[in-house]
Amino acid sequence: MINLGEINTLEILRETDHGVYLVDDDDNQVLLPNRYVPEGFKIWEKLDVFVYLDNEERPVATTDMPYIKRGDFALLRCNQVTDYGAFLDWGLVKELFCPFSEQAFKMKPGGWYLVHCYLDEKTNRLVASSKTNRFLDNKELTVAEFDAVDLIVSHPSDIGMNVIVNKKHIGLIYKDSIFRDLSVGDKLKGIVKKIRPGNKLDIALGQVGYRNIEPNADKIMKELQDNSGYLKLTDKSSPEAIKETLQMSKKNFKKAVGTLYKKRLIEIKPDGIYLVE
After folding, report:
1. Neighbour count for residue 261 (Cβ, 10 Å)
2. Fewer CB in a 10 Å sphere around the end CB: N or C, the chain?
C-alpha cells in the first residue's frame, strides 16, 4: 500500500516521458516526476519517497522531504491566505492547505504557526490544523512517571508552558521549572515528573537522571558509576552473584534493570550492563 503523507520505500518499475513509475509490493503505482529522478537510476532500484497529491489531486512522489509528515506537529510559515484558507510552506512545491475552520487564530502571511498534519477523510487530502489539542488525548496514557519523553512546545499559559508529549499527549512545564527561553515549536527532551488526577502530566526539561528513579535502579546506577560504567551482570546471572554484588534479589534486579533500560540510561549486552554515555 502506498501511504499519502508518509515516506514510502518503492521500486522503480518503468520509465516514461514524464518520469518513472514506482511500485509497491501490491502493484500500486505512483509517478516520480523527472525533476526528482536520480541520475543513473536502475529499474527495480528502491527509493525512499514522500507521496502526496499534486495540483490536480493525483498521487505523486517526491524525493524532497517535507518539514512535516502525516501525524506530525511542526512550526510552519504561512505563505498566503486566500478565500479558502491559508497555504503553508512545508518544503514542497505544492503548499500545505489549512482551512479557516482548522485555524485556532486567523493566520496571516509571514506568520509562523504550530500545526498538525492529517489526512482529511472527506477529501482524501493532506491538510494542516493549528487546533493541535484536538489531536492529543490524555484519557489513556502511554507514559509513566519518570519516563523520558519527546516534547514540542505548544503554547504558553498563566502558570507555565504547554507541551506536546510524544506526539500523543498534552503536558505542562511549570514556570518555576523553566530555566531557559522556550518558543512555540521548539523540540526538546524531558521527563514525566508527575501524573496528577485526571491524567494531567507535569513535565520537567532534560534527560532523566538516576536521582529520579526508584531505589534499586538508583543503586545500580551508583554501582555502574563506581565501576567505570560496567557491571558483569545480566538477567542470566545467578541470584547469588546478584546478591553478592548489589545486595538485592534477582527479581528486584531485573525490575530495576528494566526501568533503567526504558529510561535509556543503560545498554544491555551479552557480557553485562553498560552505562550510556
Report:
1. 15
2. C
DSSP-based helix, strand, coil % in the chain, nearest 5: 20, 40, 40
pTM of the prediction?
A: 0.73
What is the C-alpha separation between 59 and 248, in angstroms, rounded? 59
Dihedral-angle region of residue 164 (phi above 0 means left; psi in -120 to 50 means alpha; beta otherwise): beta
Give the Cα separation of 22 and 6 in Å (integer): 15
3-class SS of residue 81: strand
Contact 82, 108 (CB under 8 A): no
Residue type, 222: K
- pLDDT above 90 covers a percentage of the chain that reads 71
How many Å separate Cα 159 from the centre of its chain?
26
Q: What domains, with CATH codes, occur in the chain?
A: 7-62 (2.40.50.140), 73-133 (2.40.50.140), 148-205 (2.40.50.140), 210-275 (1.10.10.10)
Q: pLDDT band at residue 180, thresholds of 50, 70 and 90?
A: confident
Q: What radius of gyration, in Å, describes the C-alpha atoms of the chain?
A: 24
